[in-house]
């Protein structure tokens, strides 16, 4: 009998990183998580997850009728990115499969290949792992015929991590709770940033632990940042940038303070630690100025990336 040809089906999801122009820590909740008020915005710096299903020709499967699938994951992100079950892509795939009644088995006849191209700085406070998880949820829901609603995907996203629901949607949002309850807000125009990465990583739990030891709940509101993004006004956004995790990140990595100063001296309208750091974000008046600032500070950082916000949400393409 002739060997049946594999028939691949492919979906690619390009998913942007996020920044937090505003992040206030309101305190620690009874469940141990920190209560936040934060403004999220996607930036034009993205990872790409390519997902393909390889099945024997003519073979029918339906996830909800006891289908079995093997998942093979690979990435080009280097040693800092987990290769196996700890990767948020694999965790998202496992959670989604469970939700739609699909069994993951290494020897299953239908194989799903997940190939991740990492461009978002790793452990840099730009939610790279969360973005990848969102890409996996969106893409595999299509590829595996999960047919889950946007609302059901948002629920799964929140189980994977506080930033994942925003990463599913993108744009500009105000978030409360642990950061997983988001509401879209108005943003006009574009903002130009220089994202400056460090050689060292800062683990998010370590930064929150430093906040617990050294900081008090902040009372600053997001009003100034919301007004600045609604007006599309970088001159107004620069001085309004705010992050309550910044002092905690600076306890763990004191050089961040001098690096931030250097960005302001180089012409940034404002400079702030991104999320839990250590990436620093410098806001520039326009794109040309972003290039000038990047040129002036390049020697201080592992990498300087010029990017723009907001960047919309994940983009799916098939075939
Ligand atoms: P956040 O801004 O959401 O706090 P981050 O940008 O600081 O996150 P990530 O790049 O998401 O950090 O990585 C944090 C850790 O998560 C890494 O050190 C790595 O061990 C783990 N990780 C799991 N999956 C991924 C992934 N797909 N990409 C990057 N890191 C991942």
What does this structure look like?
The protein is of the alpha+beta class and 319 residues long. The chain has two domains: 10-19 and 44-171, 2-Layer Sandwich (Ribosomal Protein S5, domain 2), CATH 3.30.230; 191-309, Alpha-Beta Plaits. It has helices at 88-99, 128-143, 150-160, 164-169, 204-214, 223-231, 234-240, 246-252, 255-265, 287-297, and strands spanning 9-28, 34-54, 68-75, 103-104, 111-117, 172-176, 181-184, 191-197, 242-243, 270-273, 280-284, 303-309, 315-318. It is globular, with a radius of gyration of 21 Å. The mean pLDDT is 92. Bound molecules: adenosine-5'-triphosphate (ATP). Adenosine-5'-triphosphate is lined by residues 77, 80-82, 86-89, 122-130, 132, 163, 204, 275-276.
Total DSSP helices: 10
Helix content: 25-40%
What is the average of the pLDDT values? Answer: 92
Number of domains: 2
Judged by helices, strands and strand pairing, the structural class is: alpha+beta
Q: Taking Cα atoms only, what radius of gyration do you get, to the nearest Å?
A: 21 Å
Number of strands: 13
State the name of the first-level CATH class of the largest domain.
Alpha Beta
Strand content: 25-35%
Bound chemical compounds:
adenosine-5'-triphosphate
Largest beta sheet, briefly? 9 strands, mixed
Q: What name does CATH use for the topology of the largest domain? A: Ribosomal Protein S5, domain 2
Q: Architecture of the largest domain, CATH level 2? A: 2-Layer Sandwich
Series of H and E elements: EEEHEEHHHEEEHHHEHHEEHEE
Straight-line distance between termini: 29 Å
């Amino acid at each position: 009998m002739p060997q049946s040809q594999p028939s691949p089906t492919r979906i690619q999801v390009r998913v942007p990183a996020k920044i937090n122009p505003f992040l206030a820590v309101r305190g620690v909740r009874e469940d141990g998580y920190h209560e936040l008020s934060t403004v999220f915005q996607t930036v034009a710096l993205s990872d790409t997850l390519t997902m393909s299903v390889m099945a024997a020709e003519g073979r029918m499967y339906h996830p909800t009728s006891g289908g079995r699938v093997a998942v093979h994951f690979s990435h080009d992100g280097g040693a800092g990115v987990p290769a196996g079950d700890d990767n948020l892509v694999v965790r998202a795939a496992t959670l989604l499969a469970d939700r739609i009644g699909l069994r993951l088995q290494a020897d299953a006849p239908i194989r799903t290949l997940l190939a991740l191209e990492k461009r978002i700085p790793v452990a840099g406070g730009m939610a790279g792992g969360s973005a990848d998880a969102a890409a996996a949820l969106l893409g595999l829901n299509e590829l595996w015929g999960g047919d889950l609603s946007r609302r059901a995907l948002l629920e799964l996203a929140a189980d994977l991590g506080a930033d994942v629901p925003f990463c599913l949607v993108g744009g500009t949002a105000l978030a409360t709770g642990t950061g997983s309850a988001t509401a879209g807000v108005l943003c006009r125009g574009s903002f130009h940033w220089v994202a400056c990465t460090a050689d060292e990583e800062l683990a998010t739990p370590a930064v929150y632990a430093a906040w617990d030891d050294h900081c008090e709940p902040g009372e600053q509101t997001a009003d100034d940042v919301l007004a600045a993004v609604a007006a599309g006004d970088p001159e107004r956004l620069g001085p309004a940038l705010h992050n309550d995790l910044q002092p905690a990140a600076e306890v763990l990595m004191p050089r961040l303070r001098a690096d931030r100063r250097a960005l302001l001296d180089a012409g940034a309208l404002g400079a702030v630690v991104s999320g839990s750091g250590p990436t620093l974000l410098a806001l520039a008046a326009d794109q040309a100025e972003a290039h000038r600032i990047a040129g002036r500070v390049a020697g201080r950082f592992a990498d300087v990336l010029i990017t723009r916000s907001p960047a919309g949400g994940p983009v799916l393409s098939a075939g």
